[in-house]
Structure formats: C-alpha cells, structure tokens
Amino acid sequence: MKIAILGTGYVGLVTGTCLADCGNEVTCIDKDAAKVLGLQQGRIPIYEPGLEELVERSSREGRLRFTTELAEGLRGARVVFICVGTPQSESGAADLSTVFAVAEAIAKVAEDPKLVVVKSTVPVGTNAKVLEILSKANIVHKAASNPEFLKEGAAIEDCTKPDRVVVGVRDQESAELLRELYAPFLRTERPFLVMSPESAEMTKYVANAMLATKISFINEMANLCERTHADINDVRRGIGHDVRIGFQFLFPGAGYGGSCFPKDIRAVISMAAEKGMESRILQSVDAVNEAQKSRLFEKIKTHYGEKLGGKTFAIWGLAFKPRTDDIREAPSLVLINELLRSGAKCRVHDPEAMDNVRSQLGDRIEYLDRPMDAVKGADALVIVTEWQEFRSPDFATLASTLRDKVVFDGRNLYEPKAPAAYGLTYHSIGRATTGPR
C-alpha cells in the first residue's frame, strides 16, 4: 500500500519506517529542508534503538523516502497520516495550528481521494474539524483517528507488536482499509479496536492520564513512607501482587517528563475546563509531579544545609528516561538549575542526551564522556535517569573518589545496604537513608 506521512518527528518517523519495513511504499513529508536532507543522507534526528538500521534498510530497498514536496508525497497515496506536533499553548491546551494547516494543505493539493488519519495527540473534536477542512476540497476525502501508543526507547517494538490498535472512523470502508494496513502487526491476536473518532481521541488522553496518575500516586506514597519509616519498595511489592493493581508504573522516582505526559495531562485539564468541569484529580497529578522534580534538591539541601556554594555534584542521567535523548520536561534540568542557582557546580554524564542539554545550558556545566569521569572532583553523586550502565557501579571506586562519600539516588537503583557497605551515605526515594551520618 502507498502511504504518506506528514511530519518526520518522533511519531511520524517511527510509524513511517515500521510501515515501510513490512512492505508498504512510504513517503515521509516535512517542511524542514535540513531535516529531510539529513534523512535522505541517513542521518537520524532522534535517538531510538533500532530506528537507524530500519531507516537505512527500507531507504536502500526503495520502500521509504523523504521529501519536502507535499504534492509529490501525496501522489498515489491511499492513506495519509498526520503526525505533526501539538505543543502546549500558554493556556495549557494543545496547539492545533499545525494540524489544521496540514489538513488545509492536503485539501488544496491532493489529486485523488485520501483517507486522512490523525495520529497526532489531539483533543476531542479535532478529527471533526479536520474533516470539515477537507470537505472544502473538490475531492471527497475521509478522516479517521489512530492515536499512537509509542514509548520512547521501545517505539519500534510498540509499533510492530502493539498491545492494541485503536482507530476512530465514520464508515466501515475506512475501518477495513486500516485493518488491512495494520494486519502484519496484529498476527498475535492483539485487538483491532474500532470506535468513533471522538472516542479514539479521548482514549489516548485517558491512557496517558491513568499512567501519569499511577506515577504521581506512588511518588506521593514514597514521600509519606519516608516520614513514617516504611519502605516504599516493600509497599510496592505488597500492592503490586494484587492483580487489580499490578506493578507497571509503580516505581517511585524523581518525577515524569518527556513530550507526552506533562503536555497531555494539562491538555485534559484544559479540555475539561472548556466543558465547564474541574479536573481535580489531574490537577493534583500535575502538581505532585512538578513538586517531585525538586525532591532530589530538597534531599541535597537537607543533607548539606542551605550553603551549597563551592560544592560539586556529579549527575548521572539527563534524559527524562533511559534509551532516549529526549530532555523535554526532564527532572534533571530542574535539579541542575536549582543547584546552579545555589552556587554549586555540576559535572554530568548521559549516554545520549548531553548534546541536547548542551544546546540549552552551554558551558554552565561540565560534560563527561564516562560516568566515573563525572565523579572525579565531585563531592556527591546524584542519579536522575536509570540507564542500564548505572546499575552496577564500582562502589569502592565511588567511595574513594567522592569527597563527601554521598549518593543521592532518584531512581532507587540499589539495595541500600550495598553502597552503605563501602562507607557511602545513600539517599533514595521512599526509603531510609543508610550509611555513615
């Protein structure tokens, strides 16, 4: 099947590449000429495990190509995916200007009927507006919704082996066309769920809202555990084995970030307000998460007191989660800015995200290529992202290198007794501090 993808950001590039990999002819269209040129030359603008190899293979075999020319990219395509960004506006609502501009461009230049599929995360009613825009064309187009459920760091797996595929359509013919397109990804009997576009649009937001709620809930309980001498890991195990609750998204930490959860929670709050409803639960979820991003700094201040000037902190992990270079809404940036304002210095390491942080913070901090290099000359270590390479450090070397022999672990990577056995004071989330006082 011939497919057009509008937007070569995270969702568009992953979706287009995976569809091309299973035999479709895919054209990815983007107005950013520099990005398109880079993709044509094999340069991938994002870090996602496995993506570069798939792009290279499908491009080499002629199934995947990139262009800035909309009319050329649309020519002959049966399905057109809108995968452009919907950033948060000043009001908290999703900014849909690019979605609507793309719909208008399709209506203007498409030469034959299209099924236009909105894959961008959009508020309820967006698909109806897109269809209204398309109806102004002389050609009869159809519109559908197909929300994405891609996790950064595991997006290829999520795209090719989805838990479910959700489509919002207004007619059976559109549903069957999308069922045919997704058939190669649903060979393990995963469900293909057909519903109205409005329900599909809401499904994406509700899914992210539920997951974000679980994260804020366990973080709030972790903070309570610290004050009641309970251990959040024991509590997590105690509730996670309840099949009604489960273990997913019940790991306490330094707060969630990224391009989806913060933006989508605020979009639902805004959507509810537009309908005259106060979303009290999600307002609390957002507030708890924003406060949690400062939890590591609070622990540092409690340990050292208010005077942090002259102290140097090694920071492991800058991306909002492992296996990505994404630093949008990352807890690490909150911590670094708080430390810098307090007069402290930061030596940082991340396997993928340092260039992105450098573009924001420049030479205000030091960037080191290896985790242990960041520790040299540091008073304490702060772990913000749970990259795999941080899980088994040489505690003896840490203890002999850190001047104050202190570790602040924002992701609970270690059993507390392990660093304490080497004379390290170990602070974590929702658990008692261990080691010398």
Q: What attributes does this structure have?
A:
437 residues; alpha/beta; Rossmann fold; N-(1-d-carboxylethyl)-l-norvaline Dehydrogenase, domain 2; 3 domains; 6-stranded parallel beta sheet; 14 strands; 43% helix; 13% strand; globular
Would you kindly provide a brief summary of this structure?
With 437 residues, this protein is of the alpha/beta class. The protein has 18 helices and 14 strands.
Any overview of this molecule?
The radius of gyration is 24 Å and the shape is globular. It has a six-stranded parallel sheet, sandwiched between helices. The protein has a six-stranded parallel sheet with strand order 11-10-9-12-13-14. The chain contains 18 helices and 14 strands. α5 (97-109) links the parallel β4 (79-82) and β5. The protein has 437 residues and is an alpha/beta fold.
Q: Which strand order does the major sheet show?
A: 3-2-1-4-5-6
Give the helix proportion (percent range). 40-55%
CATH C-level of the largest domain: Alpha Beta
Mean pLDDT: 96
What CATH calls the topology of the largest domain is: Rossmann fold
Number of strands: 14
Radius of gyration, CA atoms, in whole angstroms: 24 Å
Runs with pLDDT <50, length 5+?
none
Overall tally of domains: 3
Q: Kindly estimate the percentage of residues that lie in beta strands according to DSSP.
A: 5-15%
Overall shape: it is globular
